[in-house]
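Entry for the shared binder. Reason: the reviewer on the internal report wants the predicted structure included alongside the sequence.
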Amino acid sequence: MKHNILSTAGLRKAFTLIELLVVMIILAILAAVVIPRVLNRTEDAKVGAAITQLKNFDTALELFKVDTSSYPPSLDALIVNPGTGKWNGPYFKNADKIPLDPWGHPYIFKAPGDNNRDYDISSAGPDGQPATADDIQGWNIQKQ
């Protein structure tokens, strides 16, 4: 009788190992499906943050123009008085430097802008390279 009990116990341990392997495989499959979706959501959130920041820049740039009668020569002029006109900045609350885009790259600013725009402001996007398909351009954002 003891021999049968040991055999059953040994068989149960082997079955538990198989169950564990099946569970691990199921978890790996779930991770392969879920993780890319979560990463895509993270990237979507970063794009949304960049769009919001570009809209904030638009507001700050317009306030600068109202105060000084021109757009700034650089984004730094929104934080530090460039010595031109009646500067009422800083134009970003609680900022001691111009924020970076969500990927850690500086925003790209040019005044005057191209195609008769007063200025151009954009993010180089996830790849950090300007003039590529993933750029987020302030002049292409839908005003909401």
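Summary line for the report: Residues 2-68 form the longest helix (67 residues).
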